[in-house]
Write a structure and sequence with these properties.
The chain has one domain. 28% of the residues lie in helices and 20% in strands. The protein contains one helix and two strands. β1 and β2 form a beta hairpin. It is extended.
Length: 76
């Protein structure tokens, strides 16, 4: 669960061409990896529900095309 104190803090990081990037800092009661992942998912779902309840439209993430290559060094 998100810890009762201190309160979460939101930072506006960027107004992008296709979205707004916000960073949220919050503290968790169980800082194990599993606990943090569960809290992160629950928090994201709660934020999404609250935004939708106020008629703030969420659009799907923009598709991006990635290009490049990977090289392996076979030394050893």
């Amino acid at each position: 669960m998100v810890a009762e104190a201190p309160d979460p803090v939101a930072y506006l990081e960027e107004f992008g061409g296709d979205g707004v990037i916000v960073r949220i800092h919050y503290w968790v009661d169980d800082p194990s990896e599993r606990g943090v992942l569960a809290v992160r998912s629950a928090y994201a779902r709660a934020v999404k529900r609250r935004l939708e309840a106020t008629d703030i439209a969420l659009s799907p993430a923009s598709k991006r095309e990635l290009q490049g290559r990977v090289a392996l060094d076979r030394e050893g």
